[in-house]
Amino acid sequence: MTDPVLSVRDLRTHFFTRAGVVKAVDGVSFDLAAGEILGLVGESGSGKTVTGFSILGLIDAPGRIVEGSVMLNGTELTSLPEAQLRARRGRDISMVFQDPIATLNPMLTIGQQMRLAINAHEKLGRRAAEARAAELLTQVGIPSAEARLRSYPHEFSGGMRQRVAIAIALLHRPSVIVADEPTTALDVSIQAQILYQMRDLAAQTGTALIWISHDLAVVSSLATRLAVMYAGRIVEQGPTATLLRDPRHPYTAGLIASLPATSKPGEPLAQIPGTTPSLLSLPPGCPFAPRCARQTPACTEEPALTIEADRGWRCFHPVGQMHEEPA
Amino acid sequence: MLGFIIQRFMQAVVVMAVMSVIVFCGVYAIGNPIDIVIPPEATEEIRLNTIRRLGLDRPLYEQYFIFIGNLLQGDLGRSFVYNVPVLELIGGRLPATLELVLISVISATVIGVSLGIYAGYRPDSWLSKTIMAVSVLGFSVPSFWVGLILILTFAVNLGWMPAGGRGDTVEILGIEWSFLTADGLSHIVLPAVNLALFKLAMMIRLARAGTREIMLTDTIKFARAAGLSEATILRRHLLKLISIPIITVFGLELGSTLAFAVVTETIFSWPGVGKLIIDSISVLDRPVMVAYLILVAFLFVTINFVIDLVFALIDPRIRHGASA
Which residue intervals define the domain ABC transporter in the entry (chain A) (predicted)? Predict the structure, then answer.
């Protein structure tokens, strides 16, 4: 593997609320190679979205990155002054959000919004900026792009709006795009289209993607690598095929078992018992232990990262490795 | 869009018709202007003549239709007291009110929205907290009292500003204006501040509430993720997104202040329409009262209509909804 474009090390983002400190992201590390697609999977509240925002330095008060490093193309982002960070957002790294209806400004035309995004990083004349915008819209599959620049967001369908958002994210050919469940709010038929289109666009432009999703089925058809998050940590990561075929962490195994495709028709879907713990009162040690069938007294300690070839996991009693379990 | 305009126009006509009936009946229900118009020692003959001349001997509905007939020909009647056409009377006073109200409402809006955006953008800074504390004062202190205190402080004790009147005026297009002379401007300052205080407080609160809400939305986060600077985000995104309630309140405040700047105009002896209406009420000058209230109704109908058009202009969703 060549040098990663994005390297996240021991990232911790905490929210200092009145009820206590919420450790939304608590020690996340991963690398992203150029052109790679990393699927970041987890339940709601596992910290996937906060991880995405932390990478871009877009954490609002009362939240704050308390520790860790985010290296983008060799630049440390967490210690960068806001002005320099802003100059990288949208140019070197950009983001696509979950709900396209909420992300575009309803009172500005698509063209105006795209020009704002272009002019944030380079001073282009109106003509040139519009040409660039139209080119991007065509690339994401919006017909008669020139004319559509004068349309307002409400004149587009949800899927089309998301394409516009993707076009905006792609405007400056960033090295990384964080896609935060960009297809969740869309019709299933549109979902697949956008999914594969984004994969192709990323491949064409050499852009690496972090694809955040709660839907393992969606991500696994797209991502080259998977990182499974639970309670603010990555509990397991590795190449998609390896992880799906041979999961180590019981949580990953549970997620895979609950996929409809892996269940027999007519039988109830497998579930992971219990619910996600409150981030305010995490149990000591492994956060998944209370829901885990393989839990032992050892699990009250924080499991260290086990690395094996191109994958890693955090568990004392990994699945499929019974022989290695300590006596 | 045309259908929308026609529909609003019909609504306006109905509102004006209803308004004229209410105003006419309401004003005619109080007092007897004859006792004020003629001296107490006048003979019965003079008295009856005056009643006939003013048309007060006819039944109310007849008086109403005569009034409406004249109104449609642009004649709003003659003042009982001054014996000049009412329109001339109101028209002569309107510029004074207009300049005072426009200056105070516009500056209240510009300053209020700026302060409100700041307070909403940095809710925890001490400056924001000061702004909000001052805005509570602006809401809760009665306007007449503020007026008196302003006079007492800046006119009487410090002697910086004159206490009342319009000061020097210059004539432009046949109308006298104060705000174009240094002396006139110094006369406007205190009443304008007095009028603006409440509106300022309201604009601060509106802008702050809007800003706090909008800044947390995905629209702003997405703009930040695209690398837009905070100044661009505030100017190009936020300002438009919070503008609808601000324009609504601006219009309503403009109307109600134009119509009812009575208290401030009285305290600062500002020769505007507010003072005219108060004087007319105290001498039961019915034509002035009726004409004034009808003009006010017309003013509000017009302002609301303009506001709707402005909405359609700035918000594409309304524009397209209206044309559909």
Answer: 6-256
